[in-house]
Amino acid sequence: MSDTMFTRRGFLTRSAILGCSAAASPLLTPVSLASAPWDNRLVVIILRGAMDGLDVVQPYGDPGLAGLRRTLALRPDAGALDLDGYFALHPALAPLYPLWQANDLGFVHAVSTPYRDKRSHFDGQDLLEAGTVTLGPASGRDGWLNRLLQTQPGMSAETAYAIGHDNMLLLSGDVPVANWSPDVALKLSPQGARLAELVMHDDPLFRDAFAEAQMLSGSMQAMAAEEMAATGDMQGMAGMSAPAQGQAKGKPKGIKLIAEFTAKRLRADTRIASFSIGGWDTHNGQERTLPRALDQLAQAILTLKAELGPHWKKTAVLAMTEFGRTVRENGTKGTDHGTGGAMLLAGGAVRGGRVYGQWPGLAEADLYQRRDLMPTGDVRAYAGWAMRGLFGLDRAVVEQAVFPGLDMGSDPKLLR
Amino acid sequence: MTFDPILAEKRFGYGLSPRVAPPETVADMLLRLRGPDTIAARFPVEPFSVFRARMLEGARLRKELKKLRGTEAGEAVRKDYQLLKKAAREEHRRWLALSLIRRAWTGDGFRERLAAFWADHFTAQGKAGLLKRATSPYIEDAIRPHLSGRFADLLYAVTTSPLMLHYLDQGNSMGPDSPKAQRVGARAGLNENLARELLELHTLGVGGPYTQTDVRQLAELLTGLAYNAKQGMKFRKEFAEPGAETVLGKSYGGGKPGLHDIRAVLEDLAAHPATAAHIARKLAVHFVSDTPDPDLVRTLSERYRDTGGDLAQVYEALLTHPAAWRPELTNIKLPDEFIASAMRALAIDPQVFTGIADGRKHEKLVARLFLRPLRLMGQPWQMPLGPDGWAEEDTTWLTPQGLTARIDWALSAPAKMRKPLPDPRTFVTEALGRDAPEAVRFAAKAAENRREGIALILTSPAFQRK
After folding, report:
1. Of B386, B275, B283, B388, nearest to B331 (Cα)?
2. Which residues pair with A82 in a beta bridge?
3. Whole-number Å distance between alpha carbons of A416 and A391
4. CB distance B173 to B82 below 8 Å
5. What range defines the domain where residue B225 resides?
6. DSSP tag of B149
7. Can you name the residues that pair with B232 across neighbouring β-strands?
8. Helix (H) or strand (E) holding A379
């Protein structure tokens, strides 16, 4: 662990003490860390389990679809929502349709990471988050969002946030990022906290995690106090930002809680945030299982939009998955692990209302290994263009540092 | 760097107990492991063979419900079905508590660790209905009896177990040219899930020498493997793909399809050197370090190959290797290990759980003490995200929120299970041994109350590492 890291930890510990005392008094402004380097926001949602892009964004205009998807292809006349005369949206994403109409929602189709052939979730997700062409040894591996941070001077501890219980490789690496799940809070007494620091002092992993926990727990409480002060009554405590009010009625749960916490960080100093949504591995009864996962995704995006308020205009949300699924339905009314899939774009910063990408077709000869949607684009290129647009990165930085060896190709102009 | 009884409990068991003596030698550890499963007999968990009766009853009720839907009698049947599901859920909570109690009171901690290790290696979960409760029964039947036998036997038991077949979608997988597929026509299909995980996770490992073609061929070979509650595990010939399949260059089947072909391919996969290397590495990482000594991994792999995958022999190689006895504690306990070892150090009376007759009351307690905390610590009970089970990397678990959740559990749960709490000044030695770090001893003494004193000991790195 480097010296600068150690210094930052010291800083965090001091902030934590400040944060706690601020929380005790709702009149004090809660602690704010260093100011953010950018004004735009990026949220990356990892869809774990391999989302079936063909079902979510259905190419009903392709004559091959109906034959391959006997129970799954819905077409606009059977409930799917027409997007552009060729593609239709799965009905479970109907809550997002107004965003599509407002050009705040778009998709990229027939994309993938460079991962091929073994179709393992775990390797696929690791590769998606590592952003590399192949997987090296697990030790020392970092994620592409962390490498983005590494190229920028002056990152504060709060610039990037991993949210939820997953430890995301996407944000892991040499640059420290904040990491928190909004449903926990440290309940030690001040004396207990000091003793815990002592007990953990000689073990760097414990010491750092504890320092960060103190800082985050403190800032959560400060946030709750701030809200209470702003609204002037206990109603304000009903949000997720109130660990002390765990029993409050109407407290959001699960994905809404995570999205709400994310939006609150983005309204403050955070500019990059990431979390994941599972439940996409629809080998069986996809008609029943996929809508559950889509509902989570829709809730996440709508909550982000509602909570970000005016900042939604400066936000791009990218939802990506490790790979697509087989073009044919399997014997259990589901789909198996495939290759090409779809990526979702949302936010006021994106140029939505269109399906990006180059459609490869579903004829047998057009498929990858005669079974999967042929990937015609690399998800990393689209993520790269989005980051270049949002944060003004040089193309060379994206192609060499963030995604080493990537050719971004021509600009798809994803952003407004 | 040789055997040490305290280290044996910490690294290969669930930590120290003030009431149960640690093993005395490596030979003693292996002897206990080869002996009868006494702790399972003392705290019995329902085996799958019994759980099956619940599934049968469920199937019967669902059938009846179909007939009577909309009638008053149908309403009564629906209620019965709800009660059946509720009873299974309450039992599931009891099995959770019993699993932890076994770990807390066993004199054979290594067996419990191995049961958890293999249950994770062969992760299986029910995805719907009653089967969501079946993981512990699966472990009782498919895993525990085979912990120290041949890996091939464990592999066969797991691969043909109802829960694994369900979890990895084997049940309806049919060969494209099988009699069943001919009959149902367009609706027929092969499902590759079990075949893929068998190669990637259970045997060769993801870096292993197999291709997509091997996955597909193995999936075709596995067709016919199926389970239903009425008939049990049964080979369904009409689902089986006719003809031979080639897996890793060797041809299987071609004659009358049946379980013997599946047995044969599993034997060969178990005997493969890539499997030896994969299992060796996993054991070393799990028990010793995220970055294990290469010589330890090599030794385990060689012993595996030399003995045809005799697991007791592989464990012996592990327990007699100097790298296994490095005194510094490295790996961080997984959340369920952390909770179990805290209960062991606190010598929690089994009666706290077994003494509650009311299922609902018991369930509430388990939810508060274990289910919710484990979720917050990042390890919802028996629900890893995928068939690769839980991550081993320490950094996965020691995140700020993971640590916070452990601290909060250590602050609140012990007092709910043991009254009064022990004096932290004596507990520090009971939990950590005579060489407890000075800082932890000081914290135990300086804490402002017993509750925080106990929590500081339990969340200290000395307790959380193994």
Report:
1. B283
2. A88
3. 14
4. no
5. 165-270
6. S
7. B228
8. helix A379-391
Residue B329 in contact with partner chain A when CB distance is under 8 A: no
Count the domains in chain B: 1
Closest to B266 (Cα-Cα) out of B167, B121, B150, B138: B150
Asked if B461's CB is within 8 angstroms of A202's CB, the reply is yes
Residue A358 CB contacts under 8 Å (≥ 6 apart), including other chains: A110, A376, A377
> Going by C-beta distance under 8 Å and a sequence separation of 6 or more, which residues neighbour residue B80?
B61
User: Nearest chain A Cα to B201, which residue?
Assistant: A120
| Biggest CA pair distance of chain A | 70
Which alpha helices (DSSP H) does B106-254 contain, by range?
A: 109-121, 135-138, 151-159, 162-167, 179-184, 193-197, 212-222
Separation of alpha carbons A280 and A286, rounded Å: 9
What ranges make up the beta strands (E) of B77-120? none
With CB atoms and an 8 Å threshold, state whether B403 touches A278: no
Q: Which amino acid is at A293?
A: A
The answer to whether residue B186 is domain-embedded is yes
The burial of B107, by beta-carbon neighbours within 10 Å (0-12 exposed, 13-18 middle, 19 or more buried), is given as: middle
| B91 inside 8 A of chain A by CB | no
| Greatest Cα pair distance in chain B | 76
Question: What are phi and psi for residue B312, nearest 5 degrees?
Answer: -60, -35
Q: If you ran DSSP here, which 8-state letter would residue A311 be given? A: G
d(CA A47, CA A297): 9
3-class SS of residue B436: coil
The CA angle A45-A50-A54, to the nearest 5 degrees, is: 100
Q: Provide the pairing of β-strand A105-112 with A377-378.
A: parallel
Distance of alpha carbon A73 from alpha carbon A88, whole angstroms: 10
Q: Is B211 in Cβ contact with A186 (below 8 Å)?
A: no
Please, what are the domains in chain A? 1-31+189-239 (no CATH), 37-183+252-402 (3.40.720)
Q: Is residue B252 part of a domain?
A: yes
Q: Which residues pair with A106 in a beta bridge?
A: A345
Written as one letter, the residue type at A249 is K
**Geometric angle at alpha carbon A339, from A46 and A391, rounded to 5°:** 40
Both tokens of B332, joined, read: 């961080």
The tens-digit pLDDT sequence of chain B (466 residues) is 789 999 999 999 999 999 999 999 999 999 999 999 999 999 999 999 999 999 999 999 999 999 998 899 999 999 999 999 999 999 999 999 999 999 999 999 999 999 999 999 999 998 878 999 999 999 999 999 999 999 999 999 999 999 999 999 898 899 999 998 888 875 668 888 899 999 999 999 988 999 999 999 999 999 999 888 887 778 999 999 999 999 999 999 889 989 999 999 999 999 999 999 999 999 999 999 999 999 999 999 999 999 999 999 999 999 999 999 999 999 999 999 999 999 999 999 999 999 999 999 999 999 999 999 998 898 999 988 778 889 898 888 898 889 999 999 999 999 999 989 999 999 999 999 999 999 999 999 999 999 999 999 999 999 999 9
Q: How many CB atoms lie within 10 A of CB B397?
A: 26
- Which residues in chain B are closer than 8 Å to A192, comparing Cβ atoms? 447-448, 452, 455-456
A110 close to A359: Cβ distance less than 8 angstroms = yes
Which of 288-317 (B) contact A at CB < 8 A? 290-291
Q: How far is A396 from chain B (nearest CA, A)?
A: 32
Contact B174, B219 (CB under 8 A): no
Whole-angstrom distance, CA of residue B44 vs CA of residue A164:
36
pTM of the model: 0.77
Alpha carbon separation from A340 to A362, A372, B172, B460 (Å, rounded): 11, 7, 25, 47
* Token couple for A100: 């599509």
> Tokens 């420290």 correspond to what residue?
A176
The Cα-based distances of A148 to A159, A256, B117, B304, B318 in angstroms read 12, 27, 37, 44, 42
